[in-house]
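Example (one chain per record):
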Amino acid sequence: MSIYRNDVVDKIVAIDDNHAQLVEALVTSHKPRRILELGFGAGGSCRAIQRGLAYNAAPHEFDLVDCWYDFNGSPPAEIQKDTYSDINMITATEESFVFSCTKKYDFIFSDADHFRTQDWFVHVYENLLDRNGILIYHDVTNTRLFPNLLRIYEDTIRNGYHHMLFDRKSRSDEACERGLLVIFKH
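Predicted structure:
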């Protein structure tokens, strides 16, 4: 059951299952201690991060930032369940959080402001992502709905950041063509 009021919207914005599996595997393998998720959306990436953290069974801090725009300004009932009690919920816009944050994170998953996140992408990479961290952006090749997000991929290439773009699908039930960009900071 979707937490969105409209299942069609959920299918358009929710992370694809195979990208969620990749996110979980990256958390499991990278063993991050400080995690930041920008945007809750349908919760698929959040649950994938949590599964990876549970597997690792190591101390961690998990901050999740959302202004709850998709939910009329209030956190949905889904996010208030005990299964999310290990997450530090921060109600803020992505922009205000990014420019006020003084922490560094080992792992950042960004899927919040689909209209302006490209404007502060380099700031996130340079100031919020710790050395040897992983930064992930969803929907970077979803040019039909968010052509502006392609700039993140273009800036990644232009700046010489180590990365991998996952945007190919092999099955009709996948939505991988929307793009998951994984950036590695060294």
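Caption: The helical segments are 7-13, 17-30, 44-56, 94-100, 121-128, 150-158.
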